[in-house]
Amino acid sequence: MKKAMMIVIGLIVATGVLQLFRPEKVPSTPAANLAGVPPEVNRILRTSCFDCHSSEVNLRWYDQLSPASFLVNKHVLEGRKAFNFSGWDSLPTPAQNNMLYYALNQALANEMPLPSYTMVHGSASLSAEDKALLKQYIFSRTPRKTTDTTQLHVADKQYEAFVNGTLQATGKVKPAPNEIAYIPDYRNWKMMSTTDRFDNGTVRMIYANDIAVKAIEEHHTKEWPDGAVFAKAAWKEQVNADGSVTAGAFWQVEFMIKDAGKYAQTAGWGWARWRGDDLKPYGANAAFTQECVSCHQPMKGNDYVFTKPLNLFRALQQKR
Ligand code: HEC
Ligand code: HEC
C-alpha cells in the first residue's frame, strides 16, 4: 500500500516537473469561415481540420500538458505547412475546388483527421454523415455544364494541328525539374484503367508499360517491380450540347516510374508531369514531387498506386 502510494506521488511529481518543459507556443489568430461555403460544411471543417490546417488553433487544457504538448504542436505546425485553409479568400475558384477535393480525398481515405488526434479528441472524428455531406457539397460545386465555345475551340485547334501534322513541330520536350525525361512511347502502352475527375472536369486514361502489364498478369500488384511505369494522361472533359461527354483538349500527362533504389527518397517512384499541348515540364524545382508523394500517401499499403487495373484480357483470351 505504502509502495503504491509512493509510486503515485512519484508520478505526480514527475508530471509536475515535466510541465517546466513546454514547447514553444503555436501562434494562433482567429480563422474566418470559408467564404461561400455553407455553414454546415464550415462547421465540419472547423471541428475536424482547422486545429491543424488554419491560423487558429483551439488547444484543450490537456493538449498543453507535457509531453503530449510536444506532439500536438508538431502536428499543428506540420499540418499547417502541408495544407492551410487560411489562404482561402485569395484563391481562385478552381484552386478552392482543388483544395476541397484534396481534403475530401484525405477524409475518405481515413488519413485525416490524424487518427492519433481523434483518439483523444473524439469530437473531431468525421461521422459517415459528415463525410457524405462534404462529398455532396464538393460534387455540387462543379456540376457538369455544357462546355463553352472557347474551350471547344482549344480542342478543335489541337485536333486541326494534329490532322495537318503541325502538332509535333514544338521541338524537343524538356525534362522535368527532377531530370526525368519525357516518355513519348506511353501512347503505345496498354490501358490500365480510366477515371473521371468531377471537380476539375478532366477525363483520364491510365497506361501501363510492358513490365507493369506483366506484373498485372502475374498478380504482382501489391509491390510493383522495378521498371514498371504508369502514365496518366488527362483531357478536359467536354460536355456536348446533346449531353454526351467526350475527351476534349489535351491537358497533361504524368508518370510514375518504379525504381526502389534510385527513387528511395520519393517513395520508390520517379514522378514527372508535363502540361499543355506544348508539354511544359511541371514544377518550379525538383521539390514538386512532394506534392505527388503526399497525395499518393494514403495508398502507401498499395505501393502508392491508386488505380486498380481493369482486367487485362490477354491471358484469358490465350487460354480459350
Ligand atoms: C492533429 C492535427 C491534424 C488534424 C486535426 C487534421 N490534420 Fe491534415 N495533416 C496533419 C499533418 C501533420 C499533415 C502533414 C503530414 C501528413 O500528411 O501526415 C497533414 C496533411 C494534410 C493534407 C495534405 C496531404 C499530405 O499528406 O500532405 C491534407 C489535404 C489534410 N491534411 C487534410 C485534412 C482534413 C480535410 C482534415 C479534417 C477532416 C485534417 N487534415 C485534420 C495534421 C492534421
Ligand atoms: C490531389 C491529389 C494528387 C496529387 C497532388 C497527385 N496525384 Fe497522382 N493520382 C491521384 C489519384 C486520386 C489518382 C487515381 C486516378 C485518378 O483519380 O485519376 C492518381 C493517379 C496517378 C497515376 C496513375 C497510377 C496510380 O497511382 O493510380 C500517376 C502516374 C500519377 N497519379 C502521377 C502523379 C504525379 C507525377 C504527381 C505529381 C506531379 C501526382 N500524381 C500528384 C491523386 C493525386
UniProtKB/TrEMBL annotation:
Domain Haem-binding: 8-141
Organism (species): Filimonas lacunae
Cross-referenced InterPro entries: Cytochrome_P460 (IPR032033), Cytochrome_P460_sp (IPR038142), Haem-bd (IPR025992)
Taxonomic lineage of the native organism: Bacteria, Pseudomonadati, Bacteroidota, Chitinophagia, Chitinophagales
Protein name as annotated: Haem-binding domain-containing protein
Gene3D superfamilies assigned to the protein according to its UniProt record, in alphabetical order: Cytochrome P460
